[in-house]
Task: inverse folding
């Protein structure tokens, strides 16, 4: 019987590592607060400007769905909007004890290590 990753054995080690990595990842993300900020360009709200390529591409595609420029503007507009959302996120790590932080990181990276170890062929 083949185990994790096609290697001999390691299935139990894989699932223990997966459980540890999931628990550590959950504990880490539980300590993070994410907020959004205003889209600004030289101190002014600029979200409307990011919609222009998207709206122009949408209008062109409603007129003729085979227009390459319309598809280019639509895709560029979606990329600009998604990039703008990501760039304007503020991510804060909430205060916690050193013990909790170390336990979280040990669970996360120890679990990843166990998963990788389970995928290596036995010696």
Result:
């Amino acid at each position: 019987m083949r185990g994790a990753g096609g290697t001999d054995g390691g299935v139990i080690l894989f699932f223990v590592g997966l459980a540890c990595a999931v628990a550590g990842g959950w504990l880490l993300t539980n300590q993070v607060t994410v907020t959004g900020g205003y889209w600004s360009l030289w101190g002014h709200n600029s979200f409307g400007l990011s919609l222009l390529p998207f709206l122009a591409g949408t209008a062109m595609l409603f007129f003729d769905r085979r227009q390459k420029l319309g598809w280019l503007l639509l895709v560029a507009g979606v990329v600009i909007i998604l990039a703008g959302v990501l760039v304007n996120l503020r991510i804060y790590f909430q205060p916690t004890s050193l013990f909790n932080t170390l336990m979280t990181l040990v669970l996360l990276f120890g679990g990843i290590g166990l998963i990788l170890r389970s995928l290596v062929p036995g010696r």
Q: What stands out?
A: The chain has a mean pLDDT of 87. The beta strands are 32-36, 40-41, 44-45, 89-93.
